[in-house]
Amino acid sequence: MLSVSKSEQIILDLVRPLSEVEPVDLALATGRILATEIVSQLDFPHWDNSAMDGYAVKFADVRSSTPKHPITLEVVAEIPAGCQPQREIQSGEAARIFTGAIVPAGADTIVMQEHTQRVQKNFVKIQIAPTAKSFVRQRGAYARIGDPLLAAGTILNPPEIAILAATGSSQVAVYRRPRVAILSTGDELVMPHEPLKPGQIVDSNQYALAAFVHQAGGIPICMGIIPDDRAKLTAAMSEAIESADLVLSTGGVSVGDYDYVEAILSELGGDIRIRAVAIKPGKPLTVAKFNRDNRTVVYFGLPGNPVSALVSCWRFVRSAMAKLSGLPPAAWQPCWSEALTTQDLTADGQRETYLWGKWELIDGKYYFSLAGGSHSSANLVNLAGTNALAVVPVDTMLVPAGSSVKVLVL
């Protein structure tokens, strides 16, 4: 068996990031990964503008204003947002201005409305002296033409979408999403809508893995249940390898009489790099590499037990998906944290053990609490609400309650 860390490195070394780029409308780009660096085509702000409703003035005119001795200025213009000022402000003059409006030439400071008193129709008293250049958003203060705004490999979330819109982009170049084929193996499996007969099991893996792939930014290609028939399984695996960038199959990777996956991978020309990992749950993990038409396909033969399949995805496949998708190297690594365990964590000490539960911040400290019930790899019921896995290292049989534990945040 290979160690968890060694297996992780082997998998990452197998994966080649996708290079295909496609344009998408900005409205549909949320969650996609930027393929090219975005540099500013404009100054931000585009021009000097007001951060307040008030009056645009020359600072030299109002620097000595006090409530007892206010300075009176003539109001010679009104500038709403979106309008071009029509004249320059001279000494002794002010312009009524609104938030976002262009600061007129000659003015260098905004006096907020609350510090003024309008007198008659065309005059205003400045009752409190502002500071120089107050409430003026200077042109180019946030970014100048040619400044980098977003790096390639950035996930496009609402803030990034806003930046792209502000640059005038209606479309954006993103990496193609990975296509991930998913197949379940086993004569005992049935679909959720089918009546359950004695000895049969509903195939939850197909749905769980499709949700995992979707959440990881990929396109799941669900190929259904493949019976324990060598010819049918060979045909299905061959189709998956030819049609996808990555393949996830569940079941058929142990040492039973009907566990055909590893043998078929070899027959199809796969370079098998991993056969078993010293992890619990998830020991029977098969990973193979295929070269197809100048592209690399990585095949994951996952355990059939639902918890084992998901733990394998969280620990290994998610990192592979991150690299495949075009994310930068920092995003390939799992998200680790330290927490205080609220219960004793036990293991057999022979394999790196992952226990599922909840990770939460309480009074400034992170805590991990085990999910209730059995921690059997076949028990998916208590996975509900899981957001972290606590790690019990090899050669450790007990992490006492109150101790610090390494946590994989999901």
How would you summarize what this structure contains?
The chain is of the alpha/beta class. It is 19% helix and 32% strand. The protein folds into 4 domains: 172 residues, MoaB/Mog-like domain (Molybdenum Cofactor Biosythetic Enzyme, Chain A), CATH 3.40.980; 52 residues, Alpha-Beta Complex (Molybdopterin biosynthesis moea protein, domain 2); 89 residues, Molybdopterin biosynthesis moeA protein, domain 3; 74 residues, Beta Barrel (Beta-clip).
Q: Are there runs of 5+ residues with pLDDT below 50, and where?
A: none
Please report which band the strand proportion falls in: under 5%, 5-15%, 15-25%, 25-35%, 35-45% or over 45%.
Answer: 25-35%
Number-wise, the strands total: 28
Task: Say which CATH homologous superfamily of the largest domain is assigned.
Answer: MoaB/Mog-like domain
Biggest sheet statistics: 6 strands, mixed
**Rg calc:** 31 Å
Task: Using the 3D structure, state the CATH architecture of the largest domain.
Answer: 3-Layer(aba) Sandwich
State the shape.
elongated
* Helix fraction by DSSP (H/I, runs of at least 4): 10-25%
State mean pLDDT (0 to 100 scale).
95
